[in-house]
Design goal:
2 copies of one chain form a homodimer.
Chain A lengths: L2 H8 L3 H9 L6 E2 L5 E2 L2 H15 L4 H12 L5 H35 L9 H7 L9
Antiparallel strand pairs in A: 1-2
The structure holds a DNA duplex (30 and 30 nucleotides).
Chain lengths: ~140, ~140
DNA sequence: CTTGACCTTCCAGTGACGGGAAGCCCTATA
DNA sequence: TATAGGGCTTCCCGTCACTGGAAGGTCAAG
């Protein structure tokens, strides 16, 4: 199977697949013409990678997960540890974004949004002390 | 004022301040010795930038906000538009992260996390169709 | 035999900096 | 006055996970 077919089947761009080979996540064989020749297990691995990436796992996480996936004798605890660490990062990011969202929504709400120059958004960004309190 | 003092007062690393100059967000004067010489308005602008960045505005957003900030005759609607677009991006990101979080939390919950190799997390990543449904 | 799709490698750029080297400048102290 | 140190300068590379594009080789169809 050529890279184009694999791209279609996995939903990953060909560029991405080449990149994954470059960093050693997959090792497709090569045909006499120099083309990459993918077998089913390559496609399967790339699908795995695509789904793990879409869950926000980093490339290094994926490398670890893939190694565990291919290790028949792994302990599920090892996988769970990686997943829990990632979940914690997600939670931290969500918390951060929620805080931003609250501040920003408050400022937007306070801004008339008309032709006049008065703007609480800019006023808040201009002050030295952490503004944004609704008091 | 030298860059070190400005870094301390604004909380921005000196590297970041130099970068902001490089991309034209600030234009500090130069002393005879080649050192950057910051005046109060520079410090104020950098503080503005730091706060806008901490709210997640992109550099290009910041450039626009800064221009509006310095334009006495701006319409608050222009500021509000930028802020609302950013809020929408934040909301999209939060939605995406919540979806990830739900899937991941579900998988983690289903994983025994012991010495045995059976692992729903890997099983889900291995299948072709979008798994993770609690059904 | 040509066209056009597909494949290859290599190089550069993204966003927003951070690390570190090489070298100049300024001040304080011996 | 010599020197030690800290701060400042520019420059270049590295980050993360790709993406775009150029230049050129390969293959199937007409």
């Amino acid at each position: 199977m050529n890279i184009g077919d694999v791209a279609e089947r996995t939903g990953l761009p060909a560029k991405t697949i080449r990149y994954y080979e470059e960093i050693g996540l997959v090792r497709p064989a090569r045909g006499a013409n120099g083309y990459r020749r993918f077998v089913e297990s390559d496609v399967h691995k790339l699908g795995f990678l695509g789904r793990a990436r879409s869950l926000g796992f980093s490339i290094e996480d994926c490398r670890g997960l893939l190694a565990l996936y291919e290790d028949e004798g792994r302990a599920s605890a090892d996988v769970k540890r990686i997943a829990k660490a990632h979940l914690a990062r997600i939670d931290a990011k969500i918390t951060e974004l929620n805080a931003m969202r609250a501040t920003l929504a408050h400022l937007i709400d306070a801004c008339a949004g008309d032709h006049r120059p008065d703007c609480p958004i800019l006023a808040d960004l201009a002050v030295e002390e952490g503004g944004g309190e609704a008091s």
